[in-house]
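Backbone-to-sequence.
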C-alpha cells in the first residue's frame, strides 16, 4: 500500500510539473507571436506614413501608378488611425467604426484619439517644408484577438487538468471501493468459517451440561462475531436499503450500547417529536452509531456523558452525537474520516472512515464534525434524506 501511494504521489508530481512546463511554454511562444504581430503592424503603419509623405511631396500628383500604390498601402492594414498636425488638430482618420458618420472635430473622435494614444507610440511625419504631423494608431482587431489567445489556452489547459484530475480521482476512488469490497467479503468469509465451528461447539457444550453462565457468555460472543460477519458481508456488496423508523433504530442501538459499556457512561437520548423515516441498511447504520459512540467513549477516557439528538433540516434528518471528551483540532475535522488517521497510538483509523463510506456512499447522506473545542468535547453530525413515499 505504501508503494502504491508513493507511485500515485510521483505520478501526481510528474503531472503537475508537466502542466507547469506546458503553461510556461505556451505563454512564452504566444508572447513572441503577440510581439511579432505588434511589430509588423507598426511597420505597415510606418510604410503607409512614408508613402503618404512621398505621395504629397510628389509634384506629379496625376501619376496613376503612385496613386495606385498609395491606395494598396491604405488597404493593407486594418488598424484605426488618426492623423494630427503639430498643434494636435485632427486632419484625417481611417478604419474607425461608423467612420462616415463621425465628424472630424467631434468629441467622440477626440476621445477615441485619447484611447489609441495609450496603445501605441505615434509615428511622426516630417515634410520638407517643415510641417510636422503625427500619426496615432490603435491595435487591429486581429491583434486584440491574439492577445486573448493565452487566456483561452490557459482556460483550455485548466479545463483539461480538471477533467484529468476528476478522472484520476474517480479511478482511484473506484479502485479503493473495489479494494474495500474485496477486503470486506474476504473478512466475512474468513470469520464465517471458524464461526460455524464455534456455534457447533456451543451446542456440544450445552449437551455436556457445562455451566450455563459460560454457555451464555460464549453465545453472546458468537452473536457478536455473527454481527461483525454480517456487517462485513453487507459492506462488501450493494446493501439493501429499507424504510426504517430512525427514532426506533437509534433507541435500540443506544440500549444495546448501554449493556455493552460501563455504567460510568451516561446516555441522553432526545428523539424527534414525530416518527421520522429514512431508507437505510439497519445493520450498517447501527455500525456507524457504534463507531461514533466508541470514539466518544475513548475520547472521554471511559467515563462521561454522551447525548444523541434527532432533528430535521429541510428534507434531511439531523442526528447529532455530542460528547465531553478531549475535542478535535479544527485542522483535523476532515482528516478524522480518512483511512489510517487515528489519534490513538494503537488505533487503525478505520472506524470513522468506514462510517463516512457507509453514510455517504450507501445512504446518500453526510457525516461531519459539527463543532469541537479542545478540552470540552465534540459534536458529530449525520444527515440522512427523509424518506418519501415516491422515493
Amino acid at each position: 500500500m505504501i508503494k502504491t501511494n508513493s507511485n500515485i504521489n510521483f505520478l501526481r508530481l510528474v503531472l503537475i510539473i508537466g502542466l507547469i512546463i506546458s503553461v510556461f511554454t505556451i505563454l512564452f511562444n504566444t508572447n513572441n507571436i503577440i510581439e511579432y504581430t505588434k511589430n509588423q503592424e507598426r511597420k505597415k503603419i510606418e510604410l503607409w506614413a512614408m508613402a503618404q509623405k512621398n505621395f504629397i511631396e510628389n509634384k506629379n500628383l496625376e501619376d496613376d501608378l503612385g496613386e495606385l500604390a498609395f491606395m494598396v498601402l491604405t488597404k493593407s492594414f486594418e488598424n484605426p488611425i488618426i492623423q494630427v498636425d503639430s498643434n494636435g488638430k485632427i486632419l484625417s482618420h481611417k478604419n474607425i467604426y461608423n467612420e462616415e458618420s463621425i465628424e472630424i472635430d467631434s468629441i467622440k473622435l477626440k476621445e477615441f484619439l485619447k484611447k489609441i494614444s495609450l496603445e501605441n507610440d505615434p509615428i511622426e511625419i516630417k515634410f520638407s517644408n517643415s510641417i510636422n504631423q503625427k500619426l496615432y494608431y490603435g491595435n487591429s482587431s486581429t491583434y486584440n484577438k491574439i492577445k486573448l489567445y493565452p487566456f483561452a489556452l490557459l482556460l483550455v489547459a485548466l479545463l483539461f487538468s480538471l477533467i484529468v484530475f476528476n478522472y484520476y480521482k474517480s479511478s482511484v476512488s473506484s479502485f479503493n471501493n473495489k479494494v474495500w469490497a474485496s477486503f470486506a467479503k474476504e473478512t466475512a468469509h474468513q470469520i464465517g468459517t471458524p464461526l460455524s465451528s464455534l456455534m457447533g461447539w456451543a451446542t456440544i457444550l450445552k449437551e455436556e451440561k457445562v455451566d450455563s453462565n459460560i454457555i451464555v457468555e460464549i453465545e453472546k460472543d458468537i452473536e457478536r462475531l455473527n454481527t461483525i460477519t454480517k456487517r462485513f458481508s453487507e459492506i462488501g456488496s450493494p446493501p439493501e436499503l429499507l424504510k426504517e423508523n430512525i427514532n426506533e433504530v437509534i433507541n435500540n442501538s443506544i440500549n444495546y450500547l448501554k449493556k455493552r459499556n460501563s455504567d460510568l457512561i451516561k446516555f441522553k437520548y432526545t428523539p424527534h417529536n414525530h416518527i421520522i423515516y429514512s431508507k437505510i441498511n439497519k445493520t450498517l447504520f447501527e455500525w456507524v452509531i457504534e463507531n461514533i459512540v466508541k470514539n466518544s467513549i475513548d475520547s472521554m477516557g471511559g467515563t462521561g456523558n454522551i447525548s444523541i439528538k434527532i432533528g430535521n433540516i429541510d428534507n434531511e434528518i439531523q442526528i447529532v452525537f455530542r460528547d465531553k471528551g478531549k475535542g478535535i483540532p479544527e485542522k483535523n475535522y476532515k482528516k478524522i474520516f480518512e483511512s489510517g488517521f487515528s489519534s490513538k497510538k494503537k488505533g487503525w483509523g478505520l472506524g470513522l472512515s468506514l462510517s463516512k463510506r457507509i453514510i455517504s456512499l450507501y445512504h446518500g447522506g453526510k457525516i461531519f464534525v459539527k463543532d469541537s473545542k479542545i478540552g470540552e468535547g465534540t459534536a458529530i453530525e449525520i444527515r440522512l434524506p427523509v424518506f418519501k413515499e415516491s422515493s
